[in-house]
């Protein structure tokens, strides 16, 4: 069955009830709920900000600039990029580069603390504000010279970033959504049509780059393209769940077909992942790009201090400060949950951390909520109001990374995990060998995707790190894990999810 046949025929829309989720229009995304929560009382995909045209990516190119009221932030980010600010620990940093950074940092400290109240009426404004402020913070932190002193983030960044992050229920640090989901535009403004509703993979560009290099852009765009390829995966997942509710012999046959198609989509995603090697040089990535988006847990011995917390009594010291990671991709988590692989890949022992205490910058506060509980353990469809406990050796890295996803997408994953007729249980209970075979083909494709991820970590982190003389135990990813140990562990756990056949 061709993929385009998976959607219901046009006359189907005329027969479904008005309150069916397929009949509901996409809401006005400019206006958010006043308390910052989202409505998940229906099954509508739009409640989870998952679009049939673009998946977890927004269907329209993201906002490129905040309104005039917040121009000081945008101008400061422009200045950092235009002046080509360099990493503060760069070995051959010139005196001119040092002075440019000092002047820019001084200018940041002089920016007035701009109110964020009016941002809270718009999800789009909040997303852009988080992106700009997080990029400003990383520019500020990473242009500082090497030192054993604490890293002090000034109030003009601290106060609005923490306020915006609280409303979005995101950590106040650069995330995958800032670098990938909301950091793109079309190279050519080609209108999307019914026949071509998804942006072409080769028609994307990035809005912001730390280095201005094509290597950095290709690194981000590889993930963006995988997200867009995930649109087909989501369509197949939706069709499969519809058939699972029927559960007869014809439904089993159709599910088997959909799972084989899904394996093909995952294979395409794997090829896109490996294609990053064509446009992003490993040494350039490791030495010039990767340091910019490292989080606080990459700064061993240097604590991030957020100044100005006393200016707003509702602000709290952040506890989750890892950098962006591919582990924050909702489409990969969705595949895990849909296939029932999450009980393996998200198991509590798959942390990517050696068995040592977490650093002081990563300790959880007692007021934190429990969003980092595995989505397979939660049946709630209401998003949490506060951030979760931070990383520990007993918390799955992938589970913890859900904290860094947009809250709508976290709600989608919880909704998916609460499916009363999970696919894996259906396959295990079926006497039809064809569905077990198709299921194993799909899980095997996901395992091979993770084989490719192992290759990417070897090429972009392990190899360059060894050339720099750093020992294996220091090969941490931007999410704070031992990169190779983690990706191998998840890959092996995924392989363990393959069902035995007789």
Structure description:
- Residues 354-383 have a biased composition (Low complexity).
- Residues 349-396 are annotated as: Disordered.
- Belongs to the indoleamine 2,3-dioxygenase family.
- The protein is mainly α and 502 residues long.
- Helices cover 45% and strands 2% of the residues.
- The chain is built from 16 helices and 4 strands.
- It has helices at 12-15, 71-82, 95-110, 123-142, 155-168, 176-181, 214-246, 249-274, 282-289, 330-339, 342-345, 397-401, 407-417, 423-429, 433-467, 483-495, and strands spanning 151-153, 184-186, 204-206, 304-306.
- The chain has a two-stranded parallel sheet. A two-stranded antiparallel sheet has the order 2-3.
- α2 (71-82) crosses α4 (123-142) and α9 crosses α15 (433-467).
- The protein is globular.
- The two termini are 28 Å apart.
- Mean pLDDT is 82; it is low at 1-44, 350-394 and 469-473.
**Cα separation of the termini:** 28 Å
Shape: globular
N-to-C SSE series? HHHHEHHEEHHHEHHHHHHH
How much helicity do the residues have? 40-55%
Largest sheet, if any? 2 strands, parallel
Q: Tell me the β content.
A: under 5%
Give the number of helices: 16
Family: Belongs to the indoleamine 2,3-dioxygenase family.
InterPro entries: Indolamine_dOase, Trp/Indoleamine_2_3_dOase-like
Keywords: Heme, Iron, Metal-binding
GO biological process, one term: L-tryptophan catabolic process to kynurenine
